[in-house]
Write a structure and sequence with these properties.
about 70 residues; alpha+beta; Multidrug-efflux Transporter Regulator, Chain: A, Domain 2; three-stranded antiparallel beta sheet; about 55% helix
Length: about 70
């Protein structure tokens, strides 16, 4: 049984819909994608590894925003 048979696409989309890519986070925070990756690697922003990429929970990003003291322009 393959993973696609175990987990229908609808379920996978729902699970992944709760997570953002580093590119999406960078766009939301108006920073470079490498900056988001550095935050993750330094432990400042919680994330999970999905293959070779990272995924960030939306709720973790909201929590991070409350503690981010940098001024945005």
């Amino acid at each position: 049984m393959t993973s696609s048979e175990k987990y229908p696409k609808v379920v996978i989309r729902k699970i992944m819909g709760e997570y953002l890519t580093t590119k999406e986070v960078a766009k939301l925070l108006k920073v470079e994608e490498i900056t988001v990756r550095r935050w993750i690697l330094r432990g400042w922003l919680p994330a999970i590894r999905f293959g070779r990429e990272f995924r960030i929970k939306k709720e973790d990003l909201e929590k991070y925003g409350k503690f981010d003291k940098r001024k945005r322009r």
